[in-house]
Amino acid sequence: VQLQASGGGLVQAGGSLRLSCAASIEMSVFDVMEWHRQAPGNKRELVASSPNVGAAKYVDSVKGRFTISRDHAKNTVVLQMNSVKPEDTGVYYCYARKFFPPLNVWGQGTQVTVSS
Known about the structure:
The structure is a single chain. The chain is an all-beta fold. The protein contains no helices and eleven strands. It has strands spanning about 5, 10, 15-25, 30-40, 45-50, 55-60, 65-70, 75-80, 90-100, 105, 110-115. The mean pLDDT is about 95.
């Protein structure tokens, strides 16, 4: 099982970026799909979560700016990043989790750099 992340790059503050994460198996297998990020010198943090049941959740710092969604036709989870800020800089990882039987999969990460 693999997750392939793409879409990172360099963007100016206030701009937008769209990250995609393609799963090698049917995405609905996973109970939740998430985006995490890790800034230099910081711990990896959860940015956005998309459960199979219930509403998406976001860390406070990105609420109103980022949107997580699933494209079932492409078997992909997308993170739309708008009004980006320099503090959004980091490596973004997609993550998929199945509760039972347990299955946890990390993507390889994609670099996002926001210039001021």
